Amino acid sequence: MSGEPSIFFADVNERQGSFLRRTFVVGGLTALGVTALTIRLAQLQVVQAQEYSTLASQNQFN
Fold this sequence. Notes:
By secondary structure, the chain is mainly alpha-helical.
């Protein structure tokens, strides 16, 4: 019986480590996605703002 707790705890630690790795991977992918969306939003609002403003003004009279 003295062997059971060590196996049990090793199994829990292994599963916890696997869960932490998956959590970090999913969190990293989520952060990467949010960063990509933020960069694209900034590009549309700051870099291309004049272009879309001109298109909107021209479209107003069509």
